[in-house]
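User: My notes are a mess, but here's the protein and flavin-adenine dinucleotide's SMILES. Can you give me a structure?
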Amino acid sequence: VNEQLVRAPVLWLSERPWFRAAATRSGIARRFVPGDTVDEALSAARDLGSLGIGTMLDHLGENVTTREGASAATDDYVAAVQALRGAPDVDGAVSVKLTQLGLDLSRNLCLSNLRRVIEAAAGGLVMIDMEGHGYVDGTLEIHAELRGAGASVGVCLQSYLRRTAADVEALPPSSTIRLVKGAYLEPAEVAFTEKSEVDGAYRRLFATLLARGHTVHVATHDEDLVEGARRLVGTRGVDRDRVEYQMLFGIRRDLQERLAQDGDPVRVYVPYGTEWYPYLTRRMAERPANLWFFASTLGRR
Ligand SMILES: Cc1cc2nc3c(=O)[nH]c(=O)nc-3n(C[C@H](O)[C@H](O)[C@H](O)COP(=O)(O)OP(=O)(O)OC[C@H]3O[C@@H](n4cnc5c(N)ncnc54)[C@H](O)[C@@H]3O)c2cc1C
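Assistant: No problem, the inputs look usable. Here's the predicted complex:
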């Protein structure tokens, strides 16, 4: 399967204003985003908790264009980590996007905003999402700087990028890495285009990350990759707390629950907020079948 051929038309469609308006009216976002507020996100987290599943909160938003916008997004994250600290019954952490904290404006602004979130988290894990390929250097530098200063911070790496094997070699020791396939439309110069290559890279990167002593979040809904990871963890006798399985809210709930029932650590990424549109378009581009689901919700109205 050529990934770009599948993604490009869906992303084109999602840029049409009529499509956006229809998506908004349809209410399809609720399948992937449980609510606008942190309280709604915590309520979803409690439901997951009752199934033995942890949560990673993501306050939606990206590519902020003003210092005020970046500061407001930082305030939202500080509120999220404070809400988590006030909810000891919830097993939760937060994940941020650096372009939401001002990376497009200035690296230092972004870094100081992220430090503010990390201080508020008081030792709780703060994960950094990975965005389009132009942000990888900046993101990895900020991650390494904060790790060097002892912060409880981890970062996402994407197996579709050709550079990721080299990036793994350069990680600070004992990093916490979320391994994903990658959700953006990337050119063939920087990213593998065939699913078989992306999956092959995922398997190799996982094995290397484990061998190098990192903690790995296996963030995929691909059952073959999840099973492969579980087998490797079993045969290598890796500590259970070094590998966690992560999926997105609303996707493969059956697999989330089965893994949790089998006693594997599972965490679900729970996005919330009003800026859900770019997130939703990536979910549709990954799986054009979601467009049919979307069309059927329009049909029912
Ligand atoms: C916890 C978590 C955090 C993530 N963080 C990032 C990040 O920081 N940066 C980034 O670039 N990407 C991130 N992603 C997205 C990731 O890169 C992929 O785009 C996404 O997970 C789909 O790929 P997949 O690994 O599930 O495999 P795929 O091969 O795409 O899918 C495997 C199977 O999963 C199911 N599935 C996958 N996607 C969907 C969907 N949208 N709707 C319904 N079913 C679906 C289908 O059954 C499909 O057959 C994250 C994903 C997860 C799970």
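The radius of gyration is 18 Å.
User: Great, I'll file this with my notes.
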